[in-house]
Amino acid sequence: MKIAIAQINLTVGDLAGNADRICSAARNAMAQGASLLLTTELSLCGYPPEDLLLRDDFYTACAQTMQRIADEVQGITLVLGHPLAEGGRRFNAASVIRDGGVIATYRKQVLPNDAVFDEERYFHTGHDSCVFSHERLRFGINICEDIWDGRPAKAAGLAGAQVLLVLNASPYHLDKQETRYAIARQHMVQRGMPVVYANQVGGQDELVFDGASFVMDGEGQLTHQLPSFEEALCIVEIGGVGKIGVIGEPTIVPGTITPATSLEADVYRALTLGVQDYVNKNGFPGALLGLSGGIDSALTLAVAVDALGPDRVHAVMMPSQYTAGMSSEDARAQAETMKARYSEIAIKPMFDQFNTALAEQFAGLPADVTEENLQARIRGTLLMAMSNKTGAIVLTTGNKSEMGTGYATLYGDMAGGFAVLKDLRKTLVYRLAEYRNTLSPVIPRRVIERPPSAELRPDQKDQDSLPPYDVLDAIMSAYVEDNRSPSDIVAMGYSRADVDRVVRLIRISEYKRRQSPVGIRITHRGFGKDWRYPITNKFRHSV
């Protein structure tokens, strides 16, 4: 027999569009000889629906769309992820649809409520296994977090399941796939059940789902690996089918295993998919960004063009009296190489007018960061005006190191709609720039090699205000992503002065991060739904 995995890019709330994609996948699966199709977690409505799940009319619309799918999908058994309201309770569910009706329904038993997940806010816990028969085999169902716990998989095996079908909406972060393999081997394959793991693909606000669906046989060997960051329909052949209920008898016929790619390649594809889906799913005609001649905006331009095409990207250079000639040269060169639209707007005349208007207010006060921020805010105002006029979204260019330490200007370089590099440490920005140039040399060598600078005052360098980025990133990663205490970080070999400085900057910059645009998450703890610290906060770490 053949079953199919539908790794498709769905959109939260687009019930009609999602239904069309699911029905199309079912037709394609049947055309290739499959008699069963597995979709992903909450595939009907997209994941995560967040507070849509608190609306009764949302469940009503989902139920109506589900019936439409059941009526349309004939000749194949469909395992469909969907929200379910029944008896005053709400569930994260998966139903088995056959011949126009639902023959079985599974309700997710383990509801994640950490990191980016809030499922206990929305759903009740299911308690029963779901095992159904199909062509002389018995299939069990789990949904995502169930397999990380392991008990629902065990219960499915005890209920007679011979193959475990797992619907997932597991977002990407660094090194996530190896963790999924380990969990599958630990909790499911050890019971002798082959595992068919279907994962969502596509961008949804700050989350990117990488797909990377896979199949393991009863001995924990990988038999199928779908590609990452793209849609795919995989046909899985199961041999050795005998009597129903004979556990361990079915065998998975080996199929295609897509090779793993480098960390840099994965992150770059996550960024391009995140930008592509955020811009397209929200209906923006294109994207704008400020191109400074620095490494962050250079990488952002590369991602934007690769995601949207050059005709939909507008790079704007806004030099001041502090902008080095090489910055303008490099920005222009990259835009020309990537064939993006390029404009230059000098901000010195506007900066001079602001200073004249504020002269009386600032009389007797020395120049300081105020004047630096004013330049950034002029640039932000120009970009937002162009966004209003054209409808294009402004992509901000700040990275995680800057967001962490507050090395950014509210309503200036933080002004915009989507933060492409928000979860990338500065050291990773450089690695991605090098990686992108291995595909084709688009980022000028001088941009990568010169010391980073905001160019808001004479001879300014980032390291005038911050520790070296390799030190800053290591401390920030330990503190933010791994929840290590300052004492632990000092014990790792970093100076107390650097640790105190970085932790203090992280703490006092919370109010800025709260006002920053949503951005793509690529670590297991980004400055978004993962990070929920109070702005008003008197707690101080002791070292």
SSE topology sketch:
Elements: E1 2-7, H1 15-31, E2 36-38, H2 56-72, E3 77-86, E4 89-98, E5 101-107, H3 119-122, E6 131-134, E7 137-143, H4 145-149, H5 151-158, E8 163-168, H6 176-187, E9 195-199, E10 201-204, E11 207-210, E12 214-216, E13 222-225, E14 232-239, E15 251-252, H7 263-281, E16 287-290, H8 295-308, E17 313-317, H9 325-338, E18 341-344, H10 348-358, H11 369-390, E19 393-396, H12 400-405, E20 418-419, H13 426-439, H14 445-449, H15 469-481, H16 486-491, H17 496-508, H18 510-513
Helix pairs in contact: 1-2, 7-8, 7-13, 8-9, 8-13, 10-11, 15-17
Plain-language structure description:
With 543 residues, the chain is of the alpha/beta class. It has two domains: 2-260, Nitrilase/N-carbamoyl-D-aminoacid amidohydrolase, CATH 3.60.110; 264-462, 3-Layer(aba) Sandwich (Rossmann fold), CATH 3.40.50. Helices cover 38% and strands 19% of the residues. It contains 18 helices and 20 strands. The protein has helices spanning 15-31, 56-72, 119-122, 145-149, 151-158, 176-187, 263-281, 295-308, 325-338, 348-358, 369-390, 400-405, 426-439, 445-449, 469-481, 486-491, 496-508, 510-513, and strands at 2-7, 36-38, 77-86, 89-98, 101-107, 131-134, 137-143, 163-168, 195-199, 201-204, 207-210, 214-216, 222-225, 232-239, 251-252, 287-290, 313-317, 341-344, 393-396, 418-419. The protein has a seven-stranded mixed sheet, with helices on one face. A six-stranded mixed sheet has the order 6-7-8-9-12-13. A five-stranded parallel sheet has the order 18-17-16-19-20, sandwiched between helices. α8 (295-308) runs parallel beside α9 and α10 crosses α11 (369-390). The longest helix has 22 residues, at 369-390. The relative contact order is 0.08. Residues 243-248 have low confidence and may be disordered.
